[in-house]
Design brief:
heterodimer, A: 13-stranded mixed beta sheet, B: alpha+beta, two-stranded antiparallel sheet
């Protein structure tokens, strides 16, 4: 029989409760007691007593910082009597809590006001962060270019496609091209699931998220592969790769390799691969990827792959690292001259669009940079307005603290110390406000995501946890604390102790008044600005346009 | 004369440490206390008292050997310091003085 062991959760709790350097002896005593109890009362009772004893050791967490240290070590640690800074800090902390509690109504109003402002700012920043993240998650996103053709008639007509052989030629003949992939969108298709008896058990009308593409797709773009052979998956005709979501939609399971789909009631496709669902911040969302080599059979046109005719297929190029895009542009002009007669070469002009910037280009993406920058400005102003409001509330409160400041100054507190103390209070309030703001934000995001359903937006407060966001969110927190705390604490620390103790504080009353007045003016201005901006943006329309281009 | 204050429980613990001589550590003290006084003492209370007494300088401690039933953990062994001993005997003397002042018959008569 293995020796009996006390409950594991109690052990974990003990590690949490007990001062670390006392853990060994305490745990040893408890084990010994447990063994004795086990022999006397059995496992159950012994475990119960063990847990109770563990809880009793909470007391060793507090006030026993020095227990168990040798005397020599103790004197060594405490010989140089430095300023007992932690002690002062504890005092500030305690006084801060008492003050917040004494003026609890004002505290609650301040926190609520600040958190509503911060939440509005956060929603905007999260939205902008999301819109700036589009298409950038591909490892090669900075090197991927989309080749499009302008047809130069009397009036130039932009298209988003190229003549069919271009991708192949770029891939095969130009070494500075790392890879290229051709892709045909399908606007409207009927996907059926055969029932094995010649009929169809289910049918789905699909549009937009179906495409024909080459195996190179998975080399140029990042997709997380769930099942199947990534390299071979789309090489044969009549094969298809599904996203997990769509595999489940068609077959009721994502274990769909080898199963059959029927396209437009005539062509059977075999599932050769399953990918994870594409993220929401992509403009190339494809859930059903059919092999490109299916096309000639489907359209009954065996020679189509070599035909230099009208632009007809999308083409994406990944350049080798360090290659300038100008070289690709030159090459495209070369190719046009080589493969078309003079009339054709004069009519088709191919150019490139960078993938990582595409989302912000008018006509190719819904979020032009100026609008995003304007949104950031609005967010910053909202946060500033909230801070100004907070400053006004806390300076108005300052007079109440004048006696305390007087006493502290008389006892030798420096201005810097006082500012530090009041900054700590502000930091605590701001911390509470930020927690509230995060809650409010998370509660509001479903509405925002709902409004952005076209993009399948999935913005969440958890987006703040990625490295980039942690950086700006951290600076936002610091900035708000400084902005909201510096002025009120400076005002408080300025009180003349004699006047303050006599009960008529504020020698600089006029000065303070004017600052407060001007802050109110700033606030008013921001409200007006905000109003004007919102009337002007009209971003929703732009979103819909951009999405439908792809 | 100025003397560090000793609580009643602290005094009992200090005395128990003295009884156990070199074998005084948490569980042993708790057990001995129970045997001697009949009151069951919580181990954590004993530990807290021991550490408080050590801070007051009445006890000294060092880590002892590990045993199997402790899961290989060492125990902290306590001994009474000179200050501790002096304090104990002072308390006793003071009690005796008080008892003597009461006089032999007073209390027995009331019981």
């Amino acid at each position: 029989m293995s020796p009996p062991n006390p409950p594991r959760w109690a052990d974990a709790l003990l590690r949490l409760l007990c001062t670390p350097h006392l853990l060994e002896e305490v745990q040893g005593d408890l084990y010994e007691r447990f063994q004795a109890d086990y022999l006397a009362f059995g496992q159950k009772e012994a475990s119960r007593r063990y847990s109770l004893n563990v809880i009793g050791f909470v007391r060793l967490r507090f006030g026993f910082g020095q227990a168990g240290w040798s005397k020599a070590l103790r004197t060594r640690t405490h010989s140089n009597n430095q300023t007992p800074y932690p002690a002062m800090f504890n005092n500030y902390f305690k006084i801060a809590l008492r003050n917040l509690w004494r003026n609890r109504t004002t505290s609650v109003v301040s926190i609520l006001g600040l958190s509503v402002g911060l939440a509005s700012g956060l929603v905007i920043f999260l939205l902008v962060g999301y819109l700036f993240s589009f298409n950038r998650y591909h490892a090669k996103s900075e090197r991927i270019y989309w080749v499009v053709t302008d047809i130069l008639n009397d009036k130039p007509q932009p298209t988003d496609v190229t003549p069919r052989p271009v991708g192949q030629v770029l891939r095969d003949e130009y070494p500075f091209v790392e890879n290229a992939v051709r892709l045909n969108n399908v606007f409207g298709a009927l996907v059926g699931v055969p029932d094995g008896k010649g009929g169809m058990s289910k049918k789905f009308e699909e549009s937009r998220n179906i495409c024909f593409t080459e195996p190179e797709y998975f080399n140029v773009f990042d997709s997380e592969w769930a099942a199947g052979d990534q390299r071979a998956a789309l090489s044969a005709p009549n094969t298809v790769v599904l996203s997990k979501e769509y595999a489940t939609r068609y077959f009721g399971t994502d274990q769909a390799i080898g199963k059959t789909l029927r396209l437009d009631n005539k062509t059977d496709l075999t599932v050769t691969g399953i990918i994870e669902n594409p993220p929401s911040n992509t403009q190339l969302r494809y859930d059903v990827l059919i092999s490109y080599s299916t096309l000639p059979g489907l359209w009954n046109d065996p020679g189509m792959m070599q035909t230099w005719g009208e632009p007809i297929t999308m083409c994406w190029v990944a350049l080798k690292e360090g290659v300038d895009v100008a070289r690709l542009d030159q090459t495209l002009a070369e190719i046009t001259r080589k493969h078309y007669n003079a009339k054709g070469a004069g009519m088709y002009k191919m150019r490139t669009i960078p993938l990582h910037e595409m989302f912000h280009m008018p006509g190719y993406g819904p979020a032009p940079r100026p609008i995003l920058y304007a949104l950031i400005v609005v967010g910053v102003f909202l946060v500033i307005a909230a801070c100004v409001n907070f400053i006004n509330l806390s300076t108005a409160q300052a007079v109440r603290r004048s006696k305390e400041v007087g006493v502290r100054k008389t006892m030798g507190s420096s201005r810097a110390q006082l500012i530090g103390q009041f900054m700590l209070e502000t930091a605590m309030l701001c911390g509470a406000a930020f927690i509230m703001a995060l809650l409010l934000t998370q509660l509001n995001l479903p509405m925002l995501n709902g409004a952005l359903w076209m993009l399948r937006a999935d913005i969440s407060v958890l987006d703040l946890l990625n490295t980039h966001a942690v950086w700006w969110f951290g600076s936002l927190v610091m900035l708000v604390i400084l902005l909201a705390g510096l002025y009120p604490s400076a005002v408080l620390a300025r009180f003349n102790p004699v006047a303050a103790l006599k009960g008529k504080p504020g020698t600089g009353r006029n000065g303070r008044f004017s600052v407060r007045k001007s802050l109110v003016v700033v606030q008013f201005f921001i409200t007006q600005f905000h109003h004007w901006r919102h009337r002007d943006v009209g971003a929703g329309e732009a979103f819909e346009n951009g999405r439908s281009r792809i | 004369m100025k003397r560090t204050y000793l609580g009643e429980f602290e005094e009992l613990v200090l005395l128990t440490v003295a009884i156990l001589k070199e074998k005084a550590y948490g569980v042993a003290i708790a057990d001995e206390l129970q045997d001697q006084t009949g009151r069951s003492a919580n181990i954590s209370a004993v530990h807290a008292a021991l550490h408080r007494l050590e801070e007051k300088g009445m006890l000294a401690s060092h880590l002892g050997e590990a045993t199997a039933e402790r899961g290989g953990r060492r125990k902290r062994l306590f001994v009474v310091t000179a200050l501790g001993g002096a304090t104990l005997s002072e308390i006793k003397e003071m009690r005796n003085r008080l008892w003597n002042a009461i006089g032999p018959d007073t209390l027995i008569a009331t019981i």
